[in-house]
Design brief:
Blueprint: E1 19-24, H1 28-47, E2 55-56, E3 60-61, E4 68-70, E5 76-79, E6 84-91, H2 95-111, E7 116-118, E8 123-130, E9 137-145, E10 148-158, E11 170-171, E12 174-177, E13 180-183, E14 186-189, H3 197-207
Length: about 210
Amino acid sequence: MYHYAGNNPINYTDPDGRAHRVPVTPDAVLGTKAHNSAYDKIAKAIYSKGYSLVYTNKGMYNASGTSKINRKRPDAQVPNGTSLLLWELKPSKDVIQAKSDIEFYVDEANKKGVKAEAGEKLGWIAGNVPVKDTDGIFMDIYSNEDGVILYDLYRYEDDDDDSKKTNWKVIGGVVIIGGVLIVGGVVIFFSGGTVAPAAAAAAAALAA
């Protein structure tokens, strides 16, 4: 899916419609920045599930949240009365490690006599989140498994190589001329960029 201006047209622009996502692989430094940029989004997602107390990047607490039991630091935890709910944040390529980390945290809590378990899956958390202290790197954050929160990093780059682009000037009777789409005599104007086949097909269906 194409997001105009990183889905943030107030702070970013993409006047010619050519920007596209390029994946970014985090190293240790970038991974730390990504984590720090994600914590507030994660906390909001957990609060939205009805929990009243959320700790991010802190040593593990007991089930009532009144004292720490271990200096190990899950990325998010919720003292939930009778149990401690835990989440681990990792880049999507490290999902197996995230599951392993959650199992480790649960075992560590149990050793201290505290019942702990993986927190519930949170679903989609946030997209196009700017990573702090980076030059134009963004992240998507999501949670599709209990206790596991994943992120993908990317940047937007401008594709100036027209040889790599498909020429959509004629698509099944739909003619595109300089930002003007003509379908069965109906003229539709586009502000910039290339009209994709799906857009042209939709316009053709409307004009049919």
